[in-house]
Amino acid sequence: MEQNVMWAFFSLPPSIIKHSINVAKLCQKIAQHFDIDDKLLFTCGLFHDIGKLYIDEQILNKRSCLTKEEFEIMKQHTVYGYELLKESNVNELVCLSALYHHERLNGTGYWKKKKEELPIVVQIVAVVDVFEASTSYRPYRFPKSKKAALRILKDPELFNLV
Ligand SMILES: [Fe+2]
Description:
This is Metal dependent phosphohydrolase. GO terms for molecular function: hydrolase activity. Keywords: Hydrolase. By secondary structure, this protein is mainly alpha-helical. It has one domain (3-153): Hypothetical protein af1432 (Orthogonal Bundle), CATH 1.10.3210. Helices cover 58% and strands 0% of the residues. It has eight helices and no strands. It has helices at 3-10, 14-34, 38-46, 57-60, 68-87, 92-100, 120-134, 146-153. The N and C termini lie far apart (32 Å). Bound molecules: fe (ii) ion. Fe (ii) ion is lined by residues 49, 77, 101-102.
């Protein structure tokens, strides 16, 4: 792995580093159930949000809802992450996890991709990302219980892994 990927990762805000490490560890555990290389899934989880390095911290840390313009800027973290990883010759699935981790099976994600277009590895990162984010503390809300988070993930329209 090129050094610039690790440099970029450790330049992220600490809260995103923490979230990414948690996502990576959960992905690694889940890998065993899907017969997928756990190191690969760990790496997909670790770098899924790396593109946030290029998003203004004012937008990243905003406590209220994002405006339409801010949301469009925020969406770009997936593209920035994909491009950074692609340029660094990282495994294609790691690049695609950065690009498509906000997709939902019914096509309501950032880039309106459908299930058929999303590799299983990317689907796992998407599920784990939501689970980790909703069960963790944020300055503007309390964490959901694991039970409540699993309820969201059981919506077959959005996810189908649980
Ligand atoms: Fe993200």
